[in-house]
Amino acid sequence: MGTMVNAKKVDSSTGAVSEVRSPAIRIRMILNGKKVDSSTGEVFEVRNPATGEVIGMVPRAGWEDVHLALEIARCGKPIMAALPAHRRSEILRKTAELMGDQLECLSQLLTSENGKTIRQCRFEMATTQRLFGDFAQRWADAVACFVTPACWSQLGASDEAGIEIGLRTSWNRSIESEMQS
Question: 35: which strand partners?
């Protein structure tokens, strides 16, 4: 492609930030765990609104790609539903951790693609990272609550009710709605 972009690389072990010059990023879709191009091979150019420079290329998904993605999601739903809440919590926590390791790099990328100030993008990325961490903690707390009788007695439920609710509560149903039923 020949287009070069400036980026900041963050060393996750030291936190050191270094300036690197690299070719425009070529992103591929991830379908069923595999990186793929669109079925047509078409791409969109992502341009820095301030300079007009091409900073990336992304697949231009067509209807065939959309239908395939929806089918994969339908097939994946029961797999995710069967995943224990503590494992989902671990996935969310790890996502927050990885985002935290690359906050500056992600903020620079977001700034270059949307034209917002670096300050705005740092705030947005930090907020997104915090949300992943908060949701991870909420599920970790919910799992701990299922196995801690004291937690249920604080909510006015008997130990038996807490155990039953802990066994019946699914990922997509809130504990509050279970306590009311």
Answer: 30
**What is the pairing mode between strands 34-36 and 43-47?**
unpaired
End-to-end CA distance of the chain: 59
Range of the domain at 1: 1-82
161 in any annotated domain: no
Is 180 a member of any domain?
no
Q: What angle do CA 136, 141, 147 make, to 5 degrees?
A: 135
> What's the pLDDT at 145?
61
- Number of structural domains (the chain) is 1
Summarised one tens digit per residue, pLDDT across range 31-68 is 999 999 999 888 888 888 988 888 888 889 999 999 99
The Cα-based distances of 17 to 13, 65, 106 in angstroms read 11, 37, 12
Query: Phi, psi (5° rounding) for residue 84?
Result: -60, 150
In the block, which residue shows the tokens 């809130």? 174
The answer to whether residues 28 and 37 touch, using CB atoms and an 8 Å cutoff, is yes
Asked, for residue 125, whether it belongs to a domain, the answer is no
Q: Using DSSP, state whether 158 is helix, strand or coil.
A: coil
Whether residue 140 is contained in a domain is answered as no
